[in-house]
Design brief:
The protein is of the alpha/beta class. It has 18 helices and 15 strands. Strands 1, 2, 3, 4, 5, 6, 8, 10, 11, 12, 13, 14 and 15 form a 13-stranded parallel β-sheet that branches. α1 packs parallel to α3 and α14 packs parallel to α16. The chain is elongated, with a radius of gyration of 25 Å.
Length: about 425
């Protein structure tokens, strides 16, 4: 290269950042960059080793993962040969196991985990064994104390902001030691208290410790009752462990009638909620949707900007599409609000498409088309039609629904309206 035409080093680092944004899970683009020269090694490693997953499938959404989980022994070997890698890891996902075979494979794991000092997001789950499709619930009391100590030291890191618990019977006292956690997500979790408080990596927080201010909370897979436990959990001095008043984002699966009360309790505590995402998985929850939306407090309506609702309950032929949605929105519109986006998705039968869906869409158009939604700019509707027949394509159906049933919203230039039809055949 001619003298003076070398690419500035900061530009090279920016190029690596851009490559990382489009890279795959195997770091196909970045690994060659790390081998080009020692100068690029640091920047490349920062992306390659940002996330480490051990004992879990790389993609937890796949029912039959193509890649088998990485064994703890591989991580231990890597860290023993190149301990500097610990400085790059920010996201750690661990599948924890029990039993003699597991401990024989991971006897060095407790010491290895203590090398990580900069973790920002930690996921703890029951281990997924190689060639095993399912992941069974893990009782934390069956985990060896040495491993419990090491994981607790991760939870207590001052850098930890996000904690995800999945398929665990877990002691709640360990969660309350993550005093800097701002995002908590639980799925298939049962919390319990122990009199002896179990092994701890450090002292119990003193009375001066303030409640953990959650900004992001997610409850999934029948965790409504466990969310109630978190709402009521207190320290020995009587102070609540968790403060939901600063919650910005609430993501919840609504399974049981009791989940309604939990969701109401959470939203009633919030004063900063901007995003609400509900996945409805029971018919009872569907019929309570209007009551829930209409019961949102004045304080919540002054901050809530986005509502997303996924109704995953298969409708019967005599069900009303979008049950209670419009009624709930109508009640909300009676108070000042700052809602900007509404996303609603539902499973319907072909009969609904041909008969009573149109009337419900027109009610929604009249409600959202009024001047009571001054900040509204996006309305997105998605319908998965079960067993739909007929020659019309999905795009033709979408266009027909929009043109026929949304005269008011179509006339509002500031509102983007989209309708998507999906076939489930």
């Amino acid at each position: 290269m001619p003298q003076g035409s070398a690419i500035p080093f900061d530009i090279l680092e920016d190029i690596i950042d851009i490559l990382a944004a489009d890279d795959d899970k195997n770091s196909t683009f970045l690994k060659p960059c790390a081998l080009i020269c020692r100068s690029l090694l640091h920047r490349s490693r920062r992306h390659i080793f940002r996330t480490i997953t051990v004992g879990l499938p790389t993609d937890l959404t796949e029912k039959q993962p193509k890649l088998f989980p990485q064994m703890p022994s591989r991580l231990c070997r890597l860290m023993s040969h190149t301990p500097v890698i610990a400085d790059y890891v920010r996201v750690l996902k661990i599948g924890v196991g029990s039993g003699e075979k597991y401990y024989a494979e991971s006897r060095k794991l407790p010491a290895t985990l203590r090398q990580f000092k900069h973790i920002e997001s930690l996921m703890l789950s029951a281990r997924c064994a190689p060639r095993n499709e399912g992941i069974k619930l893990l009782d934390w009391t069956n985990v060896r104390p040495s491993l419990q100590h090491s994981i607790l030291s991760l939870i207590q890191l001052g850098t930890l902001k996000s904690l995800i618990l999945w398929k665990l019977i877990f002691p709640i006292f360990q969660v309350k030691l993550g005093v800097n956690v701002r995002a908590l997500r639980i799925a298939d979790v049962d919390f319990f208290e122990r009199d002896d408080q179990g092994p701890q990596a450090g002292p119990e927080p003193q009375n001066t410790v303030q409640p953990i201010q959650l900004h992001d909370y997610c409850m999934a897979n029948n965790c409504g009752a466990q969310s109630a436990v978190l709402l009521e959990a207190t320290r020995p001095n009587g102070r609540p462990i968790f403060d939901f008043s600063h919650l910005r984002c609430l993501v919840a699966e609504w399974h049981l009638p009791g989940d309604f009360d939990v969701l109401q309790n959470i939203t009633n505590k919030t004063t900063h909620l901007t995003t609400l995402c509900l996945t409805i998985k029971s018919y009872t929850a569907t019929t309570s949707l209007g009551v829930f939306l209409g019961g949102l407090s004045d304080m919540t309506l002054k901050t809530l900007k986005k509502i997303t609702i996924y109704r995953q309950v298969a409708s019967e032929w005599d069900d009303t599409p979008m049950a209670d949605l419009t009624d709930g929105l109508e009640t909300m519109s009676r108070f000042p609000n700052v809602l900007e986006q509404l996303v609603y998705c539902e499973q319907l039968l072909a009969e609904h498409l041909q008969h009573n869906l149109g009337a419900e869409l027109e009610k929604l158009d009249a409600t959202l088309g009024s001047c009571k939604w001054p900040c509204l700019n996006t309305v997105s509707l998605g319908f998965t039609i079960l067993y739909r027949g007929g020659p019309a394509s999905a795009r033709q159906v979408e266009a027909a629904l929009r043109q026929k049933h949304f005269p008011v919203l179509n006339a509002r230039e500031k509102v983007s309206l989209s309708i998507e039809i999906f076939d489930d055949r």
